């Protein structure tokens, strides 16, 4: 990326809409309610042939204390320090407000160059506000409609000098958006008996997608801040501070990791606010595109019903799961608490045995290395591939020790087995009458696979397939 652009302005002027327009994806939550964005969000942006990093910020508030607004302002100021150029966005339909003038004065004293943009200029309603924008003393305002994409050419012309300067100062590092490579589902795999699937190996150059999820106020953002070593995300005693899923590129022991901090998930029946509904949908999307999910629990109230709902969703999506018990430093009887947690996992999540559990204190930075070691271990298991020859030896031993049941007076035969995909490990078994094989036998096979091939704590899938009749006419 050549340069970094920070989008700054008071609440509800359209910063997140412009951010989404520049990155070409609906990453930031957008709503008419002011103050939806609280953390600063980063994305890879493109505008014609320009490639740059863009930072969406919380609305600037005139607050300098330890209130939520004050902490949000500090996050915005940190983004401004990182940026090569800033866009001050105003709402042309509302005109220049006192808060716009206040922050224009602040930006004029700052070393970061500023481009003034009057948003919502579609139609004639924004013209008076566009004229008022000259009074801010930041040069000619650019008329724009982030929602409709109008005026982007003018913005391109204003940003072009910063791209040229960045190319002159340093070699642009060409980073492409990395998309999750495990979009396949087991149902999409078509194999013939005797055929082996082409399994994709783990690429150590690609970052591990690690999503941090949990109920509100369990310490997810505090954990991410402690891992990356800076106050990158807004934290505080208020529940529900995080609203967007914020992705951060990071490295630990030479391995690239993309940390995704998410909004807290409450029971759907308790969600009435529109923005919280959008935040919950964003979190569920982050789970779908993650590779490993760290479910953060409050050690004072572990694995309540909503925690179990989140865990089951992670397992159903086929993601590797690590359970992280936070705030462990304030637990008195740690042995009893750990035993209760272990019993609850065994009782409530029997479909995935051996889920790793790590106790930490995000606030004090305790046991974070153990958590990350567990993440790398379960990620390796999630990528496990087993040779077809070994699987068929195992299948023969299994059916000899515990034969499949009878169907219509004849024994069901399991003829061939191969691994269809990794992430999670998925196996195709060719049977004489697969539709008659009971689910209990499939569960038995899954449990034995987990034990015999040492694959604890991850979802495993076994798909029954019917061999094609070689004498049937070909279509």
Automatic annotation (TrEMBL):
Residues 3-167, 208-383 form the EngA-type G domain. GTP 1 binds at residues 9-16, 56-60, 119-122. Residues 175-186 have a biased composition (Basic and acidic residues). One of its GO terms (molecular function) is GTP binding. Signal peptide: none annotated. Residues 187-202 have a biased composition (Acidic residues). It comes from the Bacteria. Keywords: GTP-binding, Nucleotide-binding, Repeat, Ribosome biogenesis. InterPro entries: G_ENGA, GTP-bd, GTPase_Der, KH_dom-like, KH_dom-like_a/b, P-loop_NTPase, Small_GTP-bd. Residues 167-202 are annotated as: Disordered. GTP 2 binds at residues 214-221, 261-265, 326-329. GTPase that plays an essential role in the late steps of ribosome biogenesis. Belongs to the TRAFAC class TrmE-Era-EngA-EngB-Septin-like GTPase superfamily. EngA (Der) GTPase family. Associates with the 50S ribosomal subunit. This is GTPase Der. It comes from Aestuariispira insulae.
């Amino acid at each position: 990326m050549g340069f970094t652009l920070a989008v700054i302005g008071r609440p509800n002027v359209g910063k997140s809409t412009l951010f989404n327009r520049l990155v070409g994806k609906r990453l930031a939550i957008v709503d008419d309610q002011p103050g939806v964005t609280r953390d600063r969000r980063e994305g890879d942006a493109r505008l014609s042939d320009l490639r740059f990093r863009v930072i969406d910020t919380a609305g600037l508030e005139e607050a300098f204390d330890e209130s939520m607004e004050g902490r949000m302002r500090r996050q915005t100021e940190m983004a401004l320090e990182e940026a090569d150029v800033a866009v001050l966005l105003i709402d042309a339909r509302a005109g220049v407000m006192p808060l716009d003038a206040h922050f224009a004065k602040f930006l004029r004293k700052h070393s970061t160059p500023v481009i003034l943009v009057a948003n919502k200029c579609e139609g004639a309603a924004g013209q008076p506000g566009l004229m008022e924008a000259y009074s801010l003393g930041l040069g000619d305002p650019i008329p724009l409609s982030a929602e409709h994409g109008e005026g982007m050419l003018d913005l391109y012309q204003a940003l072009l000098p910063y791209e040229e300067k960045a190319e002159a100062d340093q070699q642009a590092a060409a980073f492409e958006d990395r998309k999750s490579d495990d979009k396949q589902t087991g149902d999409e795999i078509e194999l013939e008996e005797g055929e082996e699937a082409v399994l994709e190996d783990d690429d150590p150059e690609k970052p591990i997608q690690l999503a941090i999820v949990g109920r509100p106020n369990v310490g997810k953002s505090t954990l991410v801040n402690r891992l990356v070593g800076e106050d990158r995300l807004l934290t505080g005693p208020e529940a529900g501070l995080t609203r967007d899923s914020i992705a951060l590129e990071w490295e630990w022991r030479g391995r690239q990791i993309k940390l995704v901090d998410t909004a807290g998930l409450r029971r759907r029946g308790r969600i009435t606010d529109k923005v919280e509904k959008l935040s919950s949908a964003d979190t569920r999307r982050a789970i779908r595109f993650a590779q490993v999910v760290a479910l953060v629990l409050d050690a004072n109230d572990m694995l309540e019903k909503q925690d179990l709902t989140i865990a089951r969703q992670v397992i159903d999506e086929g993601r590797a799961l690590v359970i992280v018990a936070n705030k462990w430093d304030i637990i008195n009887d740690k042995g009893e608490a750990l035993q209760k947690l272990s019993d609850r996992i065994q009782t409530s999540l029997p479909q995935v045995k051996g889920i790793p559990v790590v106790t930490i204190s995000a606030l004090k930075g305790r046991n974070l290395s153990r958590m990350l070691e567990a993440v790398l271990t379960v990620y390796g298991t999630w990528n496990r591939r087993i040779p077809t020859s070994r699987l068929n030896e195992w299948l023969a031993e299994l059916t000899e020790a515990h034969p499949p049941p009878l169907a219509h007076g004849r024994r069901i035969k399991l003829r061939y087995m191969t691994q269809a995909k990794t992430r999670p490990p998925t196996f195709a078994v060719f049977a004489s009458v697969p539709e008659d094989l009971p689910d209990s036998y499939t569960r038995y096979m899954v449990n034995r696979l987990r034990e015999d091939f040492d694959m604890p704590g991850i979802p495993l899938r076994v798909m029954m397939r019917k061999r094609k009749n070689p004498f049937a006419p070909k279509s």
